[in-house]
Amino acid sequence: MKAIKYLFLAALTAGYSASAMAQNGTDADVQAVKNIISQKPADLEKQMKPFFKANKKNAANLVAFGRAFYEVKDTANAKVYAMHALTASKNQCAPAFILLGDIEALGDNGGAAAQQYEQAIYCAPQDPEAYYKYANVYRKISPRGAVSKLEELRQQRPDIAVDALMGRIYYMSNDFDAALSAYSKADKSKMEERDLSDYAMTAFFKQKYDVALDVAKYGLSKNPRHAAFNRLAFFNSTELKKWDDALMYADALFNKSDSAKFSYYDYTYYGNALNGAKQHDKAIEMYQKALQQEDMDNKAKRAGVIKQLSDAYKAQEDYPNAIKSYQEYLDNIEKASANDIAALAQLHVQHASKKTTAEEQAECFIMADKTYQDLENKYEDAAEYATFMRARVNSYMDPDQKKGLAKPFYEKLDQMIGGKDNKDATDKARLTESYRYLISYYFVINDDKENAKQYAQKLLAIDPENEIAKQVMESK
After folding, report:
1. In sequence order, which residues have a C-beta less than 8 Å from that of residue 296 and are 6 or more positions away?
2. What is the C-alpha radius of gyration for the chain, rounded to an integer number of angstroms?
3. How confident is the model at residue 217, as a pLDDT?
4. Which pLDDT does position 5 carry in this prediction?
5. Which listed site, 142, 171, 371, 410, has its alpha carbon 20 to 30 Å from 184?
6. Residue 365 contacts residue 357 (beta carbons within 8 Å)
């Protein structure tokens, strides 16, 4: 019973204190109103009446009441008190217009919000808040129009870093060229961390890696444990092939940054930096970690990392794993390009170079030959290149030319490009190799001077000073 009595007295005291403050119309009313709103009482309107009565001529407090309602998404009451504030101020209360603009913006009505912010600017032309909010909502309608409003702020307040705000507007609108131009005019010492980070990111997107690194380092001079700045310094140092610096910033990101969360992209870049520093084992470990991340959620992402994993194995001359990973890369991309397929064939050729027996080498060359054949079948415009490379691969398997394995491919290449009226440098180089092989095959291996002279004539047609062709033509 006593406990109930004390609770009842406490409630009465609280009610009396609130009423007393309401009558005084002090700033304490704002906190009292916030407390009432947070409790969501059934008689909210009744409890608010004494506060409105005490503050009906206090526009600042009325706006504060409206803002408290806005914070809990009660836009109806927020609007009521914003209008009360305008009445109290005879329509000269910029914060009230800003609140009305925020209410419209919350309802995704950018045009109406901009109109309210415009009214706030009219009331207080030197207060930057309404300019910022106008620009933020108007950027969705017209980024250029938003920036124009910030130019008006520049005229009123030359002390404010307007260029940085312009950069922010363009950045949020994905106009990175304009964002970079605006940010580059701003004084970094007056920029917020957010804008410094966006500036560095914009430069990174536009491949201005030196600029991005410089901005990120400036940000780190202010906040060494800032994850975004460490990440950007790390990424851009990697792109600039500053491997030692990249690894230093990577360590800072992973081990010395506040509230850092990591994605597959971070691990991928770590692998790239380690690869560049020739720490291939560690690079492979990072690429494998990248593939295990939750945001590795589609084939395109996986393909990019797997390709880099293959490159790391290749750098170690671990060709079996390089080939295995590369084949997985091809399986994950939507459609392998001609260059993709050719790169796999080249891996097989490089694998052969590490084999010690002719039989083992032949196995690798056969795989390369099949891959070049696949290239020719899939890409008609790559037929000349594929035929030329098949000729080479078969010549590797038959270095003394006794089997003539490369012969049909060099002959086919002659048929494909030998009759061209306008031969470019590549055509001539391929034909020169073809004719030299065929001359050797007929003249040296088979003592067939007639056929050898036919190819010698063709060689002289594209290389009149070729000594081998001249000697064959002079032979009897």
Report:
1. 264, 290, 302, 305
2. 37
3. 98
4. 32
5. 142
6. no
Look at residue 372 in the predicted model and tell me its pLDDT.
98
In whole angstroms, what is the distance from residue 107 CA to residue 366 CA? Answer: 66
3-state secondary structure 311-377: HHHHHCCCHHHHHHHHHHHHHHCCCCCHHHHHHHHHHHHHHHHCCCCHHHHHHHHHHHHHHHHHHHH
Q: For the chain, first and last CA: distance in Å?
A: 132
Tokens of 286: 């990072």
**Residues comprising the chain, all counted:** 476
The Cα 224–Cα 255 span in angstroms is: 12
CA distance 114 to 98: 9
Three-class DSSP labels, the chain? CHHHHHHHHHHHHHHHHHHHHHHHCCCHHHHHHHHHHHHCCCCHHHHHHHHHHHHCCCHHHHHHHHHHHHHCCCHHHHHHHHHHHHHHHCCCCHHHHHHHHHHHHHCCCHHHHHHHHHHHHHHCCCCHHHHHHHHHHHCCCCHHHHHHHHHHHHHHCCCCCHHHHHHHHHHHCCCHHHHHHHHHHCCHHHCCHHHHHHHHHHHHHCCCHHHHHHHHHHHHHHCCCEHHHHHHHHHHHHHCCCHHHHHHHHHHHHHCCECCCCCHHHHHHHHHHHHHCCCHHHHHHHHHHHHCCCCCCCHHHHHHHHHHHHHHHHHCCCHHHHHHHHHHHHHHCCCCCHHHHHHHHHHHHHHHHCCCCHHHHHHHHHHHHHHHHHHHHHCHHHHHHHHHHHHHHHHHHCCCCCCCCCHHHHHHHHHHHCCCCCCCHHHHHHHHHHHHHHHHHHHHHCCCHHHHHHHHHHHHHHCCCCHHHHHHHHCC
Distance separating alpha carbons of residues 201 and 236, to the nearest angstrom: 10
Phi-psi region of 317 (alpha: psi -120 to 50; beta: other; left: phi over 0): left
**Cα(120)–Cα(126) distance, integer angstroms:** 10
Spatial distance between the Cα atoms of 84 and 100, rounded to a whole number of angstroms: 12
CB 414 within 8 A of CB 458: yes
Q: Position of tokens 């990248």?
A: 290
State the pTM of this model.
0.76
For residue 308, give Cα distances in angstroms to 132, 274, 276: 43, 12, 12
Q: Are 274 and 238 in contact (CB under 8 A)?
A: no
Structure tokens, 39: 């409790």
Spans in the chain with pLDDT lower than 70: 1-26
- Whole-angstrom CA distances from 340 to 300, 309, 328, 329 are 14, 15, 12, 9
Residue 139 pLDDT? 84
Strand partners, 226: 258
